[in-house]
Amino acid sequence: QQQVKQSPQSLIVQKGGISIINCAYENTAFDYFPWYQQFPGKGPALLIAIRPDVSEKKEGRFTISFNKSAKQFSLHIMDSQPGDSATYFCAARVTDSWGKLQFGAGTQVVVTP
Amino acid sequence: DTEVTQTPKHLVMGMTNKKSLKCEQHMGHRAMYWYKQKAKKPPELMFVYSYEKLSINESVPSRFSPECPNSSLLNLHLHALQPEDSALYLCASSQEGGRGQVGYGYTFGSGTRLTVV
Fold first, then answer.
1. Rounded Cα–Cα distance for residues B114 and B117 (Å)
2. Mind telling me how many Å the CA of A99 is from chain B's nearest CA?
3. Tens-level pLDDT at each residue, chain A (113 residues)
4. pLDDT 10s digits, B4-48
5. Do A98 and B98 touch (CB under 8 A)?
6. In this complex, is the C-beta atom of B52 within 8 Å of any C-beta atom belonging to chain A?
7. How far apart are CA A100 and CA A17, in angstroms?
8. How far are the Cα atoms of A92, B8, B15, B87 from residue A6, in angstroms, in the given order?
9. Do A44 and B108 touch (CB under 8 A)?
10. Order of strands, edge to edge, in the sheet holding A4-7?
11. Which of residues 17-56 of A touch B (CB under 8 A)?
12. Which strands form B4-7's sheet, in the order they lie side by side?
């Protein structure tokens, strides 16, 4: 039972373009929504995160938009660079669960030169 | 030191072997986690330790046995594994204090690539 649905599965974007990844959740018992970037052979690295009382958070070229009523959140990568080519996972922290994270299925992003 | 260190990086073991994966963090985090990640899939939680006590076991088979000797170390003991257990095993830690406290600084190690033959 997938509680966090992520789309698209893969994405190709030109250098300088915008990458957009969307996630939707069903369970309302989530209280923290991080995004992770993972390169082959490496562990996931925290990219940016948001709490549900905030509608948008921006850090450098990365922006999270959060729509609590629609139970949706998205990652925008502005001015995409070849070094951004990686797999991106959205996640949701389950409330009262010692930090258990529920991950989306992942999006493989390829940025072409 | 803002790292979670996992050893070994690669491990090949037979189905009758006993081996251990090790994880260490020195960030003062009080929650530590084991995740399993199959190729092209997201990480799946296996165990959570909070203040050195097992808080969550996600119905993991007993051939995986976690241990938390102190607040900085987390081990995963492996015995009689199956080829389908081959995966990337990730350790993570966070500032999670316990139920009801939103954690920050959730940090993953680079993982141990396990192959069972």
1. 10
2. 6
3. 568 999 999 999 999 999 999 999 987 788 889 999 999 989 999 999 998 889 999 999 999 999 999 999 999 999 999 999 999 999 998 887 888 889 999 999 999 99
4. 999 999 999 999 999 999 999 988 888 999 999 999 999 999 999
5. yes
6. no
7. 34
8. 12, 32, 35, 22
9. yes
10. A4-7, A19-25, A72-77, A62-67, A56-59
11. 31-32, 34, 36, 41-46, 51
12. B4-7, B18-25, B73-79, B64-70
Q: Which amino acid is at A28?
A: T
Residue B5: what pLDDT? 96
Residue A99 CB partners (closer than 8 Å, separation 6+): A93, B31, B33, B48, B50, B94, B96, B103, B106
- The closest CB to that of B106, out of A99, A104, A106, belongs to A99
> Residue A75 and residue A8: Cα distance in Å, rounded?
12
